[in-house]
Amino acid sequence: MEHIIVIGGGVVGLTSAWWLLEAGFRVSLVERASHVANGASYGNGGQLSYRYVSPLADAGVPFKAIQWLFQEHGPLRFKPELDMRQWTWLASFLGQCNTTDNRRTTAKLLQLGELSRAGMNELGAIVSPEDFDWRDAGKLVVYRSPKIFEQAAGKATAGDIWSGAECAAREPALAAARHLLAGGIYNSGEAVADCHAFCTALAERIRTHPRFGGFVQAEVTRMAASGGRVTGLETSAGPLGADAFVLAAGIQSRNLAAQVGVKLPLYPLKGYSLTAPIRATDTAPEISVTDFERKVLYARIGDKLRVAAMVDIAGEDLSLPPKRVDSLQRQVRETMPHAADYDRLEAWAGLRPATPNSAPIIGASPLSNLWLNVGHGPLGFTFAAGTARVLSDLMQGKAPPFALDMLALGR
């Protein structure tokens, strides 16, 4: 029985491990933290947005980005680095900022989204939805600018078009912002859930799987290769060997792959979230809401409100600048002033490993026994089940469920 080591204990690594176990492989998993899902999977927005995927790279984005940089509460911050990886990634990103590439990427991500939806439904028989506060909440994207709303409504191929007044009537948490909204687009079937709780529950099921070789809490310090193959891992817990390896370690995948000559086009897009308890007297949103212009999303997860927003292009910096947190809090209080107890909120920042075109990288690498499942950006929770299924098929020598022309390393 072939032994696989999965590197990374976030939602992507865990779902990869599960599908490989079910495919008949013996699997071990290496995670550097003391608990699974302590990185980008910990405090993300919680949206499972299968039908509404919007690659960051699009026509007009460079001009908008310049505007955002000069806005006091803008969603984007840029800190130049003396690191060519930042500039190479930005150059590639700018090359993707056109309508043609955006449409091609969107179409592929929608296919991946439908596969992920089916995969999460399968996992629902393994991990109880109640264990991770899963809700079929639907998703409402609201627009402040009448012009932008009109353009979005004209392009919409699915969903219900609501006026600003209808948005506030159907989602009372938006009542205070009614006068600021031009309208919205609502899609049913989109869900919200607690990614960290999902990972914790799935890890427990993995732990009891008869083919599971165990969790190894250790940091991989070096990946060694010879003769076109990975020969083993050097870790803080000692050397580890296997027949094959799956790299699913978030932004750390970039450095590990580079050690064996594999260049991954990843960059850490730093995002922020706020989590606040919901009291009995609060009017928290029942629908998952995305504020399009401000790039802020709101999701009710169990008895807490999760708010996620912002992109910092600033390297591997996990600090919580007070100005960024205060800015997000002010926007939240303005848009949904009565949704939660904001005096007890918790702030978090995570590094989302993104590719220039927002599509993850799945499948083979130049090394015969090194496989990749990386680059999900802010959609790791959304796409994890789908990319795990694709990876498992490829590692078994099966044909993928659809063409991977936008998802392979050599795209």
Automatic annotation (TrEMBL):
Pfam families: DAO (PF01266)
Molecular function in Gene Ontology: oxidoreductase activity
Family: Belongs to the DadA oxidoreductase family.
UniProt cross-references to InterPro entries, sorted A to Z: FAD-dep_OxRdtase, FAD/NAD-bd_sf
Domain of life the protein comes from: Bacteria
Segments forming domain FAD dependent oxidoreductase: 4-394
Swiss-Prot/TrEMBL keywords: Oxidoreductase
Entry keyword annotation includes Metal-binding: no
Database matches in PANTHER family: D-AMINO ACID DEHYDROGENASE, SARCOSINE DEHYDROGENASE-RELATED
EC number: 1.4.99.-
Top-level EC class as recorded in UniProt: oxidoreductase
Name of this chain's protein: D-amino acid dehydrogenase
